[in-house]
Amino acid sequence: MRVGKRIICGIMAGILFMVEPVSGYGMMREGTWKKDIRNQIMEIQQMQPELTPYTGPEITAPSAILMEASTGTVICEKNADEPRNPASVTKIMTLILIFDALQSGKIRLTDEVMTSAHAKSMGGSQVFLEEGEIQTVETLIKCIVIASGNDASVAMAEFIGGDEGTFVKMMNERAKGLGMEHTKFIDCCGLTDSPEHVTTARDIALMSRELITKYPQITNYTTIWMENITHVTKQGTKEFGLSNTNKLLKMATNFEVTGLKTGSTSIAKYCLSATAKKDGVELIAAIMAAPDFKARFKDAVTLLNYGYGNCRLYKDETPPELPKLSVTGGKEPEVELSYGETFTYLGLHGEDFSGVERELMLEESAKAPVKAGDQLGTLRYRFNGEEIGNIPVIAARDVDPAGFSDYVKWMMGWWRMRGEEV
């Protein structure tokens, strides 16, 4: 769409430049037209995101990205900021909000959810919930993850948000918080054909990363190949089989497939967010608008193989032991230290990280009051003579300022020690 606009503007500019003036006034207007056209072309170009040259392996999908999960490093991308319809990949954000609600205690896996008439009316991929049917939150999660149930998604949206519209507003707010700059959700399941319901390969990777890193228990569901649920309705009780739409789970690969979500409509074509693990590295391959369902899986495997063939993750599991740091004017003379995070670094060229050097730099002392989390030093990492990153060294607990009674106790202790020495 973007390229088409530029071509049209270029043609218009060329036509107007060939118009011959019929008078001096025409000469003036011709110059004005040229200036206006140039300005319009520049405005359109500035509105569009810059296209990064694709340097990854050959794939058929017009838009894709490969990201490492722990660091968020982009390994390769192809038109990753082009807005497109994501179809059921939308449900990744729905799942994030479900697990947010579980974590906060707003809902529980055992809570019972009643299907509304609106939820039952959903077409597309569904698990055929009946109006008034009751299922647990955990069962509906399985229906969403495994079978991509639109009816289950809407039922959960209504359960958490009160209605789907309110839930969709929550989805868009969550997307903003993740930096998903080119995303707008219109529904909670991706069934809509609205041209406003869009996201990008990069934004899909961002929300996929949030789901799998913040809620790693999602793999308890995304790795299920088949499972039955039980419908209990006025018509009686019957079993219904769920079959995973992510066929990567059954494909022979040299990495462990962990998820995540498929999606397809006539507008979106074939989309996929594929997640995998190998040698401690977790990768996300987001595919949009692949020409057919086989192509999206083939493209994902191609990208993941490329990533695992080139990426090496350095993770410092055993950083240097930290001493206690002296505290001036505190109730206690020292404070314990800890590392604010675990250092990780992704190499993109098959590096051997055995030569990584570490340098611990601490303050000479801290001044009370000290609050847990205050940065009191840095652990720096160097590789091949260059710094590749650092992590903060922080206070492990609070140290309050010393009061009058503390000084009295210290003086009494000091005089007692002097008396013993005499």
Describe it.
- With 422 residues, the protein is α+β, with helices and mostly antiparallel strands.
- The chain has three domains: 2-47; 63-310, DD-peptidase/beta-lactamase superfamily (Beta-lactamase, 3-Layer(aba) Sandwich); 325-404, D-Ala-D-Ala carboxypeptidase, C-terminal domain (Peptidoglycan synthesis regulatory factor (PBP3), Domain 2).
- The protein has eleven helices and 18 strands.
- The strands form six sheets. A five-stranded antiparallel sheet has the order 2-1-9-8-7, with helices on both faces. A four-stranded antiparallel sheet has the order 13-18-17-15, with no helix packed on it.
- Helix 3 runs parallel beside helix 6 (150-161).
- It starts with a helix and ends with a helix.
- The model is unreliable at 1-35 and 40-50 (pLDDT under 50).
Shape: globular
Q: Look up the CATH topology of the largest domain.
A: Beta-lactamase
**Strand count:** 18
| Helix residue percentage | 25-40%
Major sheet characteristics: 5 strands, antiparallel
Q: Determine the number of helices (DSSP H or I, runs of at least 4 residues).
A: 11
Q: What keyword list fits this structure?
A:
422 residues, alpha+beta, Beta-lactamase, Peptidoglycan synthesis regulatory factor (PBP3), Domain 2, 3 domains, five-stranded antiparallel β-sheet, four-stranded antiparallel β-sheet, 18 strands, 35% helix, globular, disordered N terminus
